[in-house]
Specification:
The complex is a heterodimer of chains A (366) and B (569).
Chain A: H1 2-8, E1 11-18, E2 27-34, E3 39-43, H2 50-58, E4 65-70, E5 73-74, E6 85-88, H3 100-109, H4 115-128, H5 144-157, E7 162-166, H6 174-191, E8 194-199, H7 202-208, E9 211-216, E10 219-224, H8 226-231, H9 236-241, E11 246-256, E12 259-264, E13 269-274, E14 283-288, E15 294-295, E16 306-315, E17 319-326, E18 329-337, E19 350-354, E20 360-363
Parallel strand pairs in A: 3-8, 3-9, 6-7, 7-8, 13-20
Antiparallel strand pairs in A: 1-2, 1-4, 4-5, 9-10, 11-12, 11-14, 12-13, 14-20, 15-19, 16-17, 16-19, 17-18
Helix pairs in contact in A: 3-4, 3-5, 4-5, 5-6
Chain B: H1 2-6, H2 19-26, H3 43-83, H4 88-93, H5 95-101, H6 114-130, H7 133-141, H8 147-172, H9 179-186, H10 189-197, H11 215-218, H12 220-237, H13 248-260, H14 271-280, H15 289-296, H16 303-311, H17 319-324, E1 327-330, E2 333-336, H18 344-375, H19 378-389, H20 396-407, H21 412-420, H22 435-458, H23 463-471, H24 476-504, H25 508-513, H26 521-530, H27 535-559
Antiparallel strand pairs in B: 1-2
Helix pairs in contact in B: 3-27, 5-6, 6-8, 7-8, 8-13, 8-15, 12-13, 18-19, 18-22, 18-24, 20-22, 22-24, 23-24, 26-27
């Protein structure tokens, strides 16, 4: 299946490696295939290799090994200006000495387009980002959000089929950022363009993307749609990196099918869903989302529960956060909805907690 | 609030701690609508008061530098600029002549009349005593050649005219030789008493001279010149008039007075002596002042001379500025100098041209270096920066002299060219003591001033701009031309202004390597300051240079905008 999928892919990385100094690999064996029209986010901590991948795709860095294909054609030796890829930079990179209209007209001019057609396209692109009236302004006269829109319009005006965005919303405040996330998503969907989006903000990645590639240590740790990434992380890095997460360390006591028992380091026994552990006796780290933990559980006769002590109760408006001490972990968080009948714990209270075994994922211990 | 208005009975008076009431209390305005502070004084005044302390403190902090700059920079420049129009020397040295000349018309083409020569005799005698007639001669010599020697000659001979009368008076009666007789004749009794009591060793100040009553009316000319004489020996020599024989000028005046006035009614001291002289003077051998001056030199009858004196008699003159633009202030008005005397226009044009050439060469050579500096990795860039700054750490003279070694006909470059066979030994290139040499050496010296502003501007241009341009489809060349270069223009502007302004006033390098065809206007200014001592002309040339720079600066501001000039950041 991989063969056909990659041949059909619009953008493909095949066994791509990148090293700057000849000693360490920044990108290790990257394989990625994107169909046309997909919105893919590269997410990861800084230094994980995501921006390098983007730069290789844009043509500003060359791959040390491997092949990058665009529309079925290898682009390794094509200079950036011939790739026809639109790009939105972190600080927008709007040319300060040109007006907004001149900025937008620039990619059309260098393609030798006639004046009338240029004006038509610039006008259309500005209207698309709702900036029709701002054509005569200089970038410095625009707010951050407006500059962002112009940068987007400039990347789209020459009808690039692939648009790369390098942390484009990093400089905006939270509210504007959320607004722009929807805006970008809407435009991308309307135009049916393929987008590769780089960010280190996981909320951004989850809300916008069709698929998210989680990068760490020069590799894609998991490539999956947002819901899958959140609910079924494949390894403990992804589980830790995406969303909030409680972990407990222990050893596999029994394993079979999609159920295993884990003996925690404190001696307690819990039920879990084995993900990337195979053998009895392996070290494991189990991961439970804070909102999947239940107080005073009634989970059936065979289910295991744990004793916990309330350390702290935090009122956050829509949710309550209760910090517990569970099996040696003092940072065990439980989130509950603010309901009228929800008990508000006080520190020192001793309670019992539990969860459905499928919500508790036994992952690698590294 | 809507409830309150609906039911007026429920309206309560605002309590003191009602925030709205407090806000209203703070929003006080007086009758004329000015905002008032909490204590009722106008807010503006209150604000000014609170800012005054800050202002005073700021002023105190900059005061030392401000005073230093004012004393050592602004004041000398202002003084220098003032010298370019100042011309009090004529009216101060020849006050009476200048006044007498007012009635004379240069257009008449004739020498002025007797009163002018009388006045000149007066002025010149005094000036010769004070020894400042040669200074005036030098000053007027800038405008009319030969005046200097004319004045020096007349200053020497002016004594002779009085001597002739002095001899005749003494022949008549040798009491005229006696300074005491003169003192008794001219001075009041009180003064004589005080003067006799004074001795040089006492260290007391000389008693103030007092005229004898009536003598001023009797002998007006004599009184005037005697007063001049007393004043002179009092201030210059600190001598008593009792010990000093009067100037010969006084005898001339006495002759004039005795010829014109009747002294028979006089009954003061030495009345007999005076009356005897009065009887004798008509038989004296005499000569009018005009005749005397013409006997000294025929040129004193030249209307050109008098026209020049007249033209330069006002306290302020445009003469220096006219000279600085190859013109001349003649009695008929401003006129161009002769073709072969025009040098300043040429020098100004040459200075401008060469400064532009130097600026342009600096841009060409400096731009790639600045680009490299801004775009290389930090370690390499630092090394390159040291190379750029290295010339700064070497003496200007050494660098300029090095160019002499390099460029001269027996120098390194010519030797290499001859050795390579590119140039024949007999036809070595002339690369120094001309414009080429000056341009080469000054480009080298001023290059860092171009590179540094360019570099500081270029280092603020993020590389993403060029990347963005490339991703938008521009080739390397287009990205540079359309995106990078326009953003680096402020650096070019700043560097150009700096280099051009430095170049236009440069002195040392053109002096050493410029020869005759490669010198700048500043070399001429230096010549007038230190050799010809024509400071007025030097000041006028300097003022024009300053004006040219300011005009160019203004033009640059209009065309490029001074806001676009960045020296960094």
């Amino acid at each position: 299946m991989a063969q056909t999928a990659e041949n059909d892919a619009f953008v493909a990385f095949e066994r791509v490696q990148k090293s700057y100094d000849g000693e360490t690999l920044v990108v290790k064996d990257l394989n990625l295939a994107m169909p046309k029209g997909e919105f893919l986010t590269m997410l990861g901590p800084s230094g994980s290799g995501k921006t390098t991948c983007l730069m290789m795709l844009a043509g500003f860095e060359t791959a040390t090994h491997g092949e990058i294909r665009l529309g079925g054609q290898s682009i390794n030796n094509i200079p950036p200006h011939k790739r026809g890829i639109g790009m939105v930079f972190q600080n927008y990179a709007l040319f300060p000495h040109m007006t907004v209209a001149e900025n937008l007209s620039f990619p059309l001019e260098v393609r030798g387009m006639g004046k009338a057609e240029r004006e038509k396209k610039v006008k259309r692109a500005l209207e698309m980002v709702q900036m029709g009236r701002f054509g005569g302004r200089r970038p410095a006269q625009l707010s951050g959000g407006q500059q962002q829109r112009i940068a987007l319009a400039r990347a789209l005006v020459f009808e690039a089929e692939l648009v790369l965005m390098d942390e484009p919303l990093g400089a905006l405040d939270k509210q504007l950022r959320e607004h722009m996330q929807f805006e970008i998503k809407r435009i991308a969907d309307d135009l049916g363009i393929t987008v590769v989006y780089v960010t280190h903000d996981q909320t951004e990645a989850l809300t916008m993307s069709d698929r998210v590639a989680v990068f760490d240590d020069g590799r894609i740790q998991q490539l999956a749609p947002p819901d899958e990434l959140y609910e079924a992380p494949k390894n403990s890095f992804v589980a830790q990196f995406i969303g909030e997460n409680n972990t407990l360390e222990g050893r596999i006591e029994e394993i079979g099918g999609n159920r295993c028992t884990v003996r925690l380091d404190t001696g307690d026994i819990i039920d879990a869903n084995p993900v990337n552990v195979k053998n009895k006796g392996d070290r494991t780290r189990v991961s439970i989302r804070p909102e999947r933990v239940e107080f005073n559980p009634d989970l059936g006769p065979e289910a295991h529960t744990l004793k916990a002590e309330v350390k702290e109760f935090i009122y956050m408006g829509d949710v309550f956060r209760t910090r517990l001490s569970v099996a040696g972990n003092d940072d065990f968080i439980v989130k509950t909805r603010n309901r009228a009948d929800q008990h508000r714990f006080s520190p020192g209270e001793r309670i019992t907690i539990g969860w459905l075994p499928e919500d508790c994922r036994a992952l690698d211990a590294s | 609030m809507s409830d309150a208005t609906a039911d007026p009975n429920k309206v309560e008076a605002p309590t003191p701690d009602d925030p709205l009431a407090q806000a209203k209390a703070l929003d006080n305005r007086d009758a004329s609508g000015r905002m008032l502070a909490a204590d009722g004084t106008p807010l503006k005044r209150q604000l000014a008061k609170s800012l005054r302390v800050q202002k005073i403190r700021a002023l105190m902090l900059i005061a030392p530098l401000l005073i230093f700059v004012l004393l050592t920079f602004i004041a000398p420049i202002a003084d220098m600029l003032f010298r370019s129009v100042e011309n009090q020397i004529v009216s101060e040295t020849l006050p009476e002549t200048v006044e007498a000349l007012e009635d004379w018309d240069y257009e008449s083409g004739e020498a002025p009349g007797e009163p002018v020569y009388d006045a000149l005799y007066n002025d010149l005698f005094l000036a010769a005593e004070y020894k400042n007639h040669t200074r005036l001669g030098t000053r007027l010599n800038y405008e009319l050649t030969g005046v200097s020697s004319l004045f020096r000659q007349a200053g020497r001979d002016v004594e002779d005219r009085g001597e002739a009368y002095l001899d005749q008076f003494e022949e008549l009666n040798d009491q005229w030789e006696d300074e005491v007789v003169w003192a008794e004749l001219m001075g009041s009794d009180e003064w004589l008493e005080a003067q006799r009591a004074w001795s040089e060793d006492s260290g007391d100040r000389l008693p103030r001279f007092q005229l004898r009553e009536g003598v001023a009316a009797l002998l007006p000319e004599t009184t005037r010149s005697f007063l001049n004489f007393v004043e002179f020996i009092r201030t210059e020599d600190r001598e008593s008039p009792l010990d000093e024989e009067p100037w010969s000028r006084v005898y001339t005046a006495l002759y004039t007075d005795l010829m014109n006035n009747d002294v028979s009614a006089y009954s003061g001291p030495h009345a007999e002596l005076l009356q005897e002289a009065a009887a004798a003077v008509p038989d004296f051998e005499t000569q009018t002042t005009k005749e005397f001056f013409l006997s000294v030199d025929d040129d004193w009858a030249d209307p050109e001379l008098w026209g020049t004196i007249q033209a330069f008699s006002p306290d302020y003159t445009s003469g220096y500025f006219l000279s600085a633009v190859d013109m001349q202030k003649t009695p008929e008005g401003a006129a161009l100098r002769n073709e072969d005397e025009r040098i300043y226009g040429l020098l100004f044009k040459r200075t401008m041209f060469m400064s532009l050439m130097i600026t342009f060469s600096c841009i060409l050579l400096g731009y790639p270096i600045a680009y490299l500096l801004a775009n290389l990795p930090a370690r390499t860039a630092n090394l390159l920066m040291i190379l750029v700054l290295l010339p700064f750490w070497t003496s200007l003279l050494v660098r300029t002299s090095a160019w002499k070694v390099m460029l001269q006909q027996q120098g390194v470059i010519n030797d290499v060219l001859v050795w390579l066979g590119l140039v024949g030994d007999g036809s070595r290139l002339v690369m120094i003591n001309n414009q080429f040499g000056t341009i080469v050496a000054m480009t080298h010296i001023l290059l860092p001033f171009m590179i540094l502003p360019m570099y500081s501007v270029m280092s603020t241009i993020p590389p993403t701009y060029v990347r963005a341009a490339r991703s938008l489809g521009a080739t390397n060349m287009t990205a540079f031309r359309r995106v990078y270069f326009p953003q680096s223009v402020p650096g070019i502007g700043a560097g150009s202004i700096l280099v051009f302004i430095l170049a236009i006033g440069y002195y040392i390098t053109p002096e050493i390597v410029g020869g005759t065809t490669g010198t700048f206007i500043s070399n001429r200014i230096a010549y007038h300051i230190s050799s010809s001592l024509n400071w007025g002309l030097a000041a006028a040339l300097g003022t024009i240079l300053l004006a040219v720079v300011l005009i160019l600066y203004w033009a640059y501001d209009r065309i490029v905008g001074i806001d676009n000039v960045k020296l960094g950041g």
